[in-house]
Specification:
The chain contains 12 helices and 15 strands. By secondary structure, it is an alpha/beta fold. The strands form 3 sheets. Strands 1, 2, 5, 6, 7, 8, 9, 10, 11, 14 and 15 form an 11-stranded mixed sheet that branches. The model has no long low-confidence stretch (mean pLDDT 97).
């Protein structure tokens, strides 16, 4: 079977632009959640988010929606690290997942139409469409192979990465740019999330708002950003002397086929088992799990049960980096895989901050508050979305290469 490896990582997140900013924040257990500044948030109940700092993207890639700009920035960093692929354009593909697409464009267009009674910009449709980021990345890098977008709510980018690896395995492509991007911090989307009553609202202490697995958790914190990976076969990467950062060893995807918002431990555990099977990993081979870990009452207890169903009483350390960067919707899986890989390659487990009060229903080792030195060879990243969409990606570190 063709082995698929990562030779480039790009990320833009609430920590800032680039891998160095993300690694520094993870090592320092420093939250990227802050008061929203990109819009007038004063009419909103929730005025905090994991917002990308303005200086991380100001002036870049104008003419695109915010989520597309983020994808382009992340792709630029990833391709710069990977170097010359030596692959024909027709054999390079793009797969960028998103949960919500061009929210900035849509929200602005609706305001012009319904509130201001002014003309809607003619490029509103191509800027807001869900595949806008994939199309822009494809055009930017001349990738003429299999390219499309995945939309599966908060599992979108995990699905994108898993499917991109499958495209290389099957011979559809020699290299893929894969990941996710979302930019949901606009008034209409925030209002909609407020209506669901699952947001953690602590406008006075934003850095403490997201509290996954803690008994006093009150909900999720919205965020934005993107992460993109360069994927290629192990043989090709090895032959061209590329630095191999990790291997996308396995992918599992399931559907709950049940409630549209309530998570299912059965669906999640089946996805975990499928990822392990695909990666040819035993449960004891996994040294860390990056949890979906949203900080909602339902998700954290259900995910804990799912992990216990698979690992029994021998679950590895688990953490939620959402406690640090918030929930970036369809981009979250890619950001979390990038964060995990960066931290583990640097020799530590990323922490779950704000875990102040143990919850009897959440009784695993969640690496509370501070990073922990570790030598991990393989990890899982869980992503679960509304509609019962579950995706789990297994990654090996391949330290000996």
């Amino acid at each position: 079977m063709t082995r698929v490896v990562i030779t480039g990582i790009g990320i833009i997140s609430p920590f800032g632009r680039g891998k160095a900013a993300a690694l520094d924040a993870l090592r320092g257990a420093r939250s990227g959640v802050r008061a929203i500044s990109s819009i007038d948030a004063s009419p909103l109940n929730c005025r905090i988010a994991g917002e990308v700092p303005v200086d991380a993207h100001e002036g870049l890639h104008r003419g695109h929606d915010r989520f597309t700009r983020f994808a382009l920035i992340a792709a630029e960093e990833a391709t710069a690290q990977a170097g010359a692929l030596g692959v024909e354009d027709e054999r390079i593909g793009v797969l960028i997942g998103t949960g919500l697409g061009g929210c900035e464009t849509l929200d602005g267009s609706y305001k012009r139409m319904y509130a201001d009674n002014t003309r809607v910009p003619p490029l509103s449709i191509p800027m807001s469409m869900y595949n806008a980021a994939s199309a822009a990345v494809s055009a930017k890098f001349g990738a003429k192979g299999v390219s499309y977008s995945v939309v599966s709510a908060c599992a979108s980018s995990a699905h994108a990465i898993g499917l991109a690896a499958q495209a290389i395995r099957s011979g559809q492509a020699d290299a893929m740019l894969a990941g996710g991007s979302d930019a949901p911090l606009v008034p209409g989307i925030i209002r909609a999330w407020e209506s669901l009553r699952v947001l953690a609202i602590d406008n006075e202490h934003p850095e403490a708002a997201c509290r996954p697995f803690s008994a006093d958790r009150k909900g999720l914190v919205l965020a934005e950003g993107a992460a993109v990976f360069v994927l290629e076969s192990f043989e090709r990467a090895h032959d061209r002397g590329a630095e191999i950062l990790g291997e996308v060893a396995g992918f599992g995807a399931t559907s709950d086929a049940g409630h549209i918002t309530d998570p299912s431990a059965d669906g999640a555990s089946r996805a975990i088992r499928l990822a392990l099977l695909d990666a040819r990993l035993n449960a004891e081979d996994v040294g860390y799990i990056n949890a979906h870990g949203t900080g909602t009452r339902a998700n954290d207890a259900t995910e804990t049960n799912a992990i216990r169903e698979v690992f029994g009483g021998n679950a590895p350390p688990v953490s939620s980096t959402k406690s640090l960067h918030g929930h970036a919707m369809g981009a979250s899986g890619a950001i979390e895989i990038a964060s995990s890989l960066l931290a583990l390659r640097d020799g530590f487990l990323p922490p779950t901050i704000n875990l102040d009060t143990p919850d009897p229903e959440c009784d695993l080792d969640y690496v509370p508050q501070v990073p922990r030195d570790a030598n991990v060879q393989a990890f899982l990243s869980n992503s679960f979305g509304f509609g019962g969409m579950n995706a789990v990606v297994a990654v090996r570190l391949l330290r000996d290469l």
